[in-house]
Design goal:
mainly alpha, about 60% helix, single chain
C-alpha cells in the first residue's frame, strides 16, 4: 500500500476514534477531520484512487455484517 494511502487511512481512523470518544463537534475532532481530508486530497492528487484499496463487489455479493 502506498505511503500516502496509509497516511490518509491512519488520519481517518484517528478522526473516527476521536469522534466516537469526544464527539463530532469537539475542536480536536474537527482538527483531525481536517487533517484526514488533507491527507486524502494528497493521496488523490498523487493518483491514488479508492479502488486501489477496495475491490468492487459484484451485485450478487452481500456485504459483511457487523456483530
Amino acid at each position: 500500500m502506498p505511503h500516502l494511502i496509509q497516511a490518509a487511512r491512519a488520519a481517518q481512523h484517528r478522526a473516527a476514534r476521536a469522534a466516537a470518544s469526544i464527539g463530532a463537534g469537539h475542536p480536536l475532532t474537527r482538527l483531525l477531520l481536517t487533517a484526514a481530508a488533507v491527507a486524502a486530497t494528497a493521496a488523490w492528487d498523487a493518483g491514488h484512487r479508492v479502488a486501489d484499496l477496495h475491490q468492487p463487489r459484484r451485485h450478487n455479493e452481500k456485504r459483511a455484517t457487523r456483530a
